Amino acid sequence: MPSIRARTLLLVLGMLSLSMTLISYKSYRDAQHEIEELFDAQLAQTARLLAGMVGRDMPTTDLQALQDALDQVLLARPSQDDEILLDGHPYEGKLAFQVLDEKGAVLLRSASAPADLFQQMAADSAQTQSGEAIPAQPLSAIAGQLLGYRSLSLADYQWRVFLLRDPQDNHWILVGEREDVRGELVGKIARRSLLPDLIGLPLLALLVWLAVGWGLRPLQRMADLIKARAPDNLTPLVLSPMPAELEPMGAALNRLLMQVNQLLDQEKRFIADAAHELRTPLAVLRIHAQNALAASDPCDRDEALRQLGGGVERATRVVAQLLTLARLDPNGVQLAMVEFDLLGFFRNELAELTPLALERQQELSFEADEAGDYRLHGDAPSLGTLLQNLIGNAVQYTPVGGRIQVQLQACHDELLLRVQDSGPGVDATLREKLFERFYRLEEGQGAGLGLSIVLRIVQLHRGTITLDESPLGGLDVCVSLPRHGVTPA
Q: Which domains, and CATH codes, for the chain?
């Protein structure tokens, strides 16, 4: 993927080039139109000057002198150097003119004007739409139809002509220019108006490139600062001054660094606690193994082996719970959420857990309204682990012959699970500590991970869990599970 700088430059320069192209094209067309109008005005102005110079009764000698003077002016050419003009200007038009009397006789005519210019103009006008010629008409009738501007084709050239009527002297003045000469001048003038745009666009592109680079410099400084940090440096990122656009990114990075730091601290504490929790069972196992090896009496050896088996079972339970916590870690494997019937699933799970209660002569009961709707969108294996830990804790802390009551209630948008026991209960000030890893009451024999696992499973299902005093005298654990729980990202 291209860099932000390249994408920004491509977008800005692309839009700038497109807009300047459209503006330049519009300016070129407007300039071309205005220059055309200027040349048309020059034709009209020249016609009026000629009308003022040629009188009705002007002598032939004066007409010839005027003809010679006009030929000299119109045949003047600019020097080779367009900037220093000696005899003319490069933008001078090559005008051609004819002055005709009322009968159509030519009084004056420029050397560049075709002899039949007026006749061709009259002939073009005398054609019908079908191409048939109109019968000959008097000059005054024909010329009256041609007053003003007109474009016509003559001798392989296109001409732009203007016809003026002088009613005072009864003259007709026809002034024209060749379209190719005129178009060359128009194009040259219009193109020169585009030179600032053609020269300015590369310069503007360079300035935009420098401006974008200067604007993105804080981002580059932030990238260099992050790149130069040591892998174990999780302190907040400090960039001063921080542009307003980078403040959300800086805040997000600092929040991420803080979360990573917290996560690493938790993992360090978890590993330390796990090592401490496993060190004691392993030491006990070694002592029981040594006692079994050193015992000479078969009864002592059997007792040591029995104690060894109990220690292995406890160590196995601790390891299993640690693996369960690792599987339920936020960065671990996501749960497979499907819709299933929680009532039937819990009933099967309780059937397998009942022997644990019977072994301690405890009464384990299950209450649920059979007519309720117990469909839930969740992960069945993890919810099975949740029920096993809650029942295991209740069995462990309920005295021999006590009671454990499990209730499942279907509400409109959630399912409520309650596990109540007749054990000694937990003081209200200590109940929240039960969710901490490796925390257990003094008389407990577990690893202190059961309720931590339960809490994580509830969080993954976006539910809630509360601890209260049970009507049976012990602890009341209430779990609320929304019917459409979704695993958080």
A: 4-195 (3.30.450), 265-327 (1.10.287.130), 338-482 (3.30.565.10)
